[in-house]
Design goal:
Layout lengths: L3 H16 L7 E4 L3 H17 L4 E4 L2 H9 L3 E2 L10 E4 L3 E2 L5 E2 L6 H10 L3 E6 L13 E5 L4 H10 L3 E4 L16 E6 L6 H8 L5 E4 L1 E2 L5 E8 L2 E8 L3
Parallel strand pairs: 1-2, 1-4, 2-3, 4-7, 7-13
Antiparallel strand pairs: 5-6, 6-12, 8-10, 8-11, 9-10, 13-14
Length: 238
C-alpha cells in the first residue's frame, strides 16, 4: 500500500528539483496539480532569494492564482505562441513516456501548453509510473455540455464506459476553465488507446482527451522515503 506521507514528500522533492530547470529570461508553461504547486512554491523562493526573472504561462485558474499570490509574473495563454519550456504533472506515465492527464480537469489547456513548448518535462512521484496506460486511472475527456448525450453514446460504441465527473462541495458536474464537462472513461485492458484516441478526436462535441502520446521529452521521478528521497530522469525512447 502506498505511504501517503512518502507520496507527498516525493511530489515536494521532484517539484523543487524541476524548479532548477527554469532559467533567467524564460517564458515557461506551468501545469496544474499538487506536484506543480510545490514547483511554483520553489520558483517563488528563487524569485525572492535568487532574483530569478521569468514569466509563467499557467494552464489553469488554480496555477495562475498561486503564481500571482507568490509574486511570479504571468502571461495569458491566448497571448502566447511558443514557450522555452513547459513543466507539468501526470496521472499515469507509461514506459514510452506517454501520459494520462486530466485529474485536475485541465487537460485541454495542458496539451496546448505542452505543444507550445520547445521541451515538455513531466514531474511525478514514483506511484504514477505504470506498465500500461489506463491501469489505475480512467481517460479524462472534455466535452461540450450540449453534446453530452451524443458523446456518451459515441464513447460506448468505442468500447468505453463514460462517467460524468461530479463536483465536490458544489452541486452538479465539474465545469472546466473552458466551461465544459469532463467524462472519466474506462476501457478494457487490451484496448488500443492510441487508436481509440484518434477515433475520439473525430467525434463532434469532444474538445480534447487526457491521452498525451509522443509529447514528453523527459520525466523527473521523485521516490524513496521521507528523509532519503531520490531523483530519476527518464528520457523518451528514440
Amino acid at each position: 500500500m502506498k505511504n501517503a506521507q512518502s507520496n507527498v514528500e516525493g511530489k515536494k522533492f521532484v517539484g523543487a528539483a524541476a524548479a532548477q530547470l527554469i532559467q533567467n529570461g524564460m517564458v515557461a508553461g506551468m501545469g496544474t496539480g499538487s506536484t506543480i504547486a510545490f514547483l511554483i512554491q520553489e520558483l517563488a523562493r528563487r524569485v525572492r532569494e535568487e532574483g530569478l526573472k521569468f514569466v509563467a504561462v499557467p494552464t489553469s485558474f488554480q496555477s495562475r492564482i498561486l503564481c500571482l499570490d507568490l509574486g511570479i509574473s504571468v502571461r495569458d495563454m491566448q497571448d502566447t505562441a511558443s514557450l522555452d519550456l513547459a513543466i507539468d504533472g501526470a496521472d499515469e506515465v507509461d514506459p514510452d513516456l506517454n501520459l494520462i492527464k486530466g485529474g485536475g480537469a485541465s487537460q485541454t489547456r495542458e496539451k496546448i501548453v505542452a505543444a507550445m513548448a520547445k521541451e515538455f518535462v513531466v514531474v511525478v512521484d514514483e506511484s504514477k509510473l505504470v506498465s500500461r496506460l489506463g491501469s489505475t486511472f480512467p481517460v479524462p475527456i472534455e466535452v461540450l455540455p450540449s453534446a453530452r448525450c451524443y458523446v456518451e453514446c459515441a464513447i460506448r460504441e468505442l468500447g468505453g464506459e463514460p462517467a460524468l465527473r461530479m463536483a465536490v462541495r458544489k452541486d452538479g458536474p465539474v465545469v472546466t476553465d473552458n466551461g465544459s464537462f469532463v467524462y472519466d472513461v474506462r476501457f478494457v485492458p487490451a484496448a488500443d488507446l492510441r487508436a481509440i484516441d484518434k477515433n475520439l478526436h473525430s467525434i463532434p462535441g469532444i474538445i480534447e482527451t487526457g491521452l498525451f502520446f509522443g509529447m514528453t521529452a523527459r520525466v523527473l521521478v521523485g521516490g524513496g522515503v521521507p528523509g532519503n528521497m531520490t531523483l530519476r530522469t527518464l528520457i523518451r525512447p528514440s
